[in-house]
Amino acid sequence: MEHLKREDPRLADLIEKESRRIENTLDLIAAENHPPAPVLEVLGSILTIKTIEGYPGRRFHGGCRHADAVERLAVERACRLFGAEHANVQPHSGTSANLAVYFSVLETGDRILSMHLPHGGHLSHGHPASATSRCFRFAHYPVDRKTERIDYDTVRELANDFRPRLLVAGASAYPRLIDYAAMADIARGVGAYLMVDMAHIAGLVAAGVIPSPVEHSDFVTFTCYKTLMGGRGGVVLCRKRFAGDLDRAVFPGTQGTSPVSAIAAKAFIFHHATRAPFVEIQERTLSNARTLSETLAGAGWRIVTGGTENHQVLLDASTGGLTGADAEQRLESVGIITNRNAIPADAGVPGAASGLRLGTAAMAARGMGPEEAARIGVLVDEALRGADREDVRGRVSSEIRSLCLSYPVYGGGPP
Ligand code: DSN
Known about the structure:
By secondary structure, this protein is α/β, with parallel strands linked by helices. 44% of the residues lie in helices and 13% in strands. It is built from 16 helices and 15 strands. The strands form four sheets. The protein has a seven-stranded mixed β-sheet, with helices on both faces. Strands 11-12-15-14 form a four-stranded antiparallel β-sheet. It has a two-stranded parallel ribbon with strand order 1-13. Helix 8 links the parallel strand 7 and strand 8. It binds D-serine. The site of D-serine has 3 residues, from loops.
């Protein structure tokens, strides 16, 4: 950073502060992770300079020899890692990846059935605030009111009534496994394509610690920065027969040039994901989530769906008389970073977020295991209930800080 420090010390200072924040606080945001240092090197590398509209061997700009090799490597590694027939590694984000799938095989105005947002879905699955809802007609399936899990009979009934051309499975706040075979069967029954958005769980799938949707789906989309550990941006996997339509829908359909540095970071992480330490982190992510969930339930908090089978724990903050926003703020004040989230009980109450979404991927990446997860559960409970007591806040805050210092992310500053 010596050039930046010299030319823009104010910006350099903000980067250093962010680096200290990452080291000194506990990241429990389910949509974040601590990428391995090479990811940051690749993202900040010279590869960011090149403009590459098109695909390897078919570019609209000269000088793409090395960029082509990088993209081919990323595609080859993505297909091998996930057992996919085709991969497009150019999407800027998960939303761009989803949009490209919609535009690849659907016509504007076609029907899509996806999960209701307050029940765990995602904005790009047709929320009224998302442009996706202005291009396609969406209906949403709920989770079961009692179990808060997907009821596949309900999804089937809705599919039979609505006759979607695309069924979307996958969620951004759903702590349970999804039965992809059942979803594929429902889609087939109405002649719909099946797209699985595995953005949150891609790392767990890559490590083989939870089931993969790939063999059941026509399209699978994901992002790289959650359980998959970095860098940024989205990916689409699909069956060979959709490859041409999908690639055209990404470029030129919905985006222009993609940063080669981001594609290269994807190539790195697909390689990294085949190694034993990555698999160990994913295993720890799962066991930490179970421990955190059990500790919080033991302390009297209602856990949405009663537990977890992935990296997420959804806590009903109203059990302690709090909103999700109160809970998020109370935890941040002691160095625990989370995010408020709607939960199924909020459905129909605009803007309500009674939930708090906790994720264990980043804590596992910095080396913490179930013992730390259990202690963190106790500290979360104390911080939520004892927010008006300065002594409690001080004690929790200092314990979180020393826990973080014992598990450095990058040690002496940004690599
Ligand atoms: N999809 C958003 C989330 O789950 O928080 C951001 O990745």
